[in-house]
Design a protein that fits this description.
The protein is built from ten helices and 20 strands. The protein has 404 residues and is of the alpha+beta class. The strands form six sheets. The protein has a seven-stranded antiparallel sheet, with no helix packed on it. A five-stranded antiparallel sheet has the order 4-3-13-12-11. Helix 2 runs parallel beside helix 7.
């Protein structure tokens, strides 16, 4: 029987060749696995525009005593200073009006339900007058409607009118105060508690921030805006009585309510209009606990200074269509990235400068001129997003560009 011829050299060669091929395949696999993440790399981007506006050193003019708040709804601005819970005097009447109009809605030109002044109403008036509370004269048999009572309440701050509204709406002061506190809780006014409808009771307390937001809610009523803008009001028996609201009708002041007691000091909620582009917006400045003089004068001065300083911090700029904000592309093939449309930005800032953020899509293919490739996000303003388009076409990257 013949023996098989062995070829150890051939087997060794095959083994070495197989090892080389296997090693090469493994190395290639490793290289590919390392490069695969790069195959989906986005275009390189350089941001050219990161902020707009210029440095402005203006600051808010907070009062030197008491507490204060600022609210600018159109710009989403809420600021407060020493936001303590304190007596608020006749600012309480804003909630009295708010609850009344929720229970007995009234539009311009309407009178609402009416009451005949009773002997009890006259007695209440005499007591209020004797205790040096704000008031409006009444007489037995006088006919007063809801609109009359709201005028006397908000313009001349008549405490006896607050009592009559409480009885008209809820049947008694106790029931009405319960409604006031329930409404405050429903509105998230956690720093607020009412003890009466006029604010003469020092247990009626709130914070400047709560009062600013309540004022903005109340001023959503066109009827209220028309009432508080009046420099005076004429009532059936009391006659013509002046407004206690400081600066109303001047310096763009359109209301809202002021108040004073020895415990509360001088308090003022001031609404001031300003132009935001083609629309008229309102800023609310609230000051509590002001001291000196007749209390209302210092409160009005402090509120006016705060409101005016706030409006000096309102800035705007128009970014024109095709303004370049970034570059996008591969290597030497780069396209400018531009705004797709004009955009006017309004913002509130003590620095005067508005930060921007450019977000570009994860682009891995050719880009066509005019194609939307991302967004410009503007922090600090509402509706602050603008589409970005490529200003030129860019060819798709080569495999080598993707692997680099």
């Amino acid at each position: 029987m013949a023996r098989r011829t062995r070829h150890p050299a051939r087997r060794g060669l095959i083994t070495r060749l197989f090892s080389v091929l296997l090693g090469t395949a493994l190395a290639a696999a490793v290289m590919v696995s390392m490069q695969l993440p790069l195959l989906d790399q986005p275009a390189s981007a350089t941001v050219a525009l990161t902020r707009v506006g210029s440095t402005n050193s203006a600051q808010l003019s907070w009062p030197s005593v008491g507490s204060a708040a600022l609210f600018v709804p159109s710009l989403g601005v809420t600021r407060s200073w020493h936001n303590a819970v304190v007596p608020i005097a006749s600012l309480t009447k804003m909630m009295t009006a708010y609850v009344t109009l929720r229970k007995l809605p009234l539009s311009a030109g309407q009178s609402g339900p009416c009451v005949t002044v009773s002997a009890s109403d006259v007695s209440t008036y005499e007591y209020i007058k004797a205790t040096d509370q704000s008031n409006a004269a009444v007489s037995i048999g006088e006919n007063l409607c809801e609109i009359d009572l709201l005028n006397g309440l908000l313009v001349h701050s008549a405490d006896n009118y607050a009592a009559m509204l409480a009885n008209m709406v809820a049947g008694s002061m106790t029931n009405f105060v319960t409604l006031m506190n329930e409404t405050a809780r429903s509105l998230g006014m956690d720093s607020t508690h009412y003890a009466d409808a006029s604010g003469f009771d020092s247990a009626s307390v709130s914070s400047a921030r709560d009062q600013a937001h309540l004022a903005a809610l109340l001023m959503q009523s066109a009827l209220v805006r028309a009432i508080v803008l009046q420099p005076s009001v004429t009532l059936p028996v009391a006659g013509t009585l002046a407004s206690y609201t400081p600066f109303v009708g001047t310096d763009n002041v359109i209301g809202v309510k002021s108040g004073r007691t020895s415990e509360a000091g001088g308090c003022d909620v001031m609404a001031m209009t300003f132009n935001q582009g083609s629309t008229t917006e309102v800023a609310y400045a609230v000051v509590l606990g002001q001291r000196g003089g007749d209390l209302l004068g210092p409160a009005g001065d402090a509120a006016l200074a705060l409101a005016q300083s706030a409006l000096r911090l309102v800035h705007h700029v128009t970014l024109a269509k095709n303004t370049m904000v970034a570059h996008l592309g591969w290597g030497t093939h780069v396209a400018p990235v531009r705004l797709a449309r004009d955009k006017t930005l309004w913002w509130w800032s003590s620095s005067g400068s508005l930060p921007l953020r450019v977000h570009l899509y994860h682009v891995t293919d050719a880009v066509r001129r005019g194609e939307v490739v991302g967004w410009l996000h503007v922090r600090g303003v509402r509706s602050g997003r603008v589409a970005l388009t490529a200003g030129a076409s860019v060819a798709a990257p080569t495999l080598w560009q993707r692997l680099r």
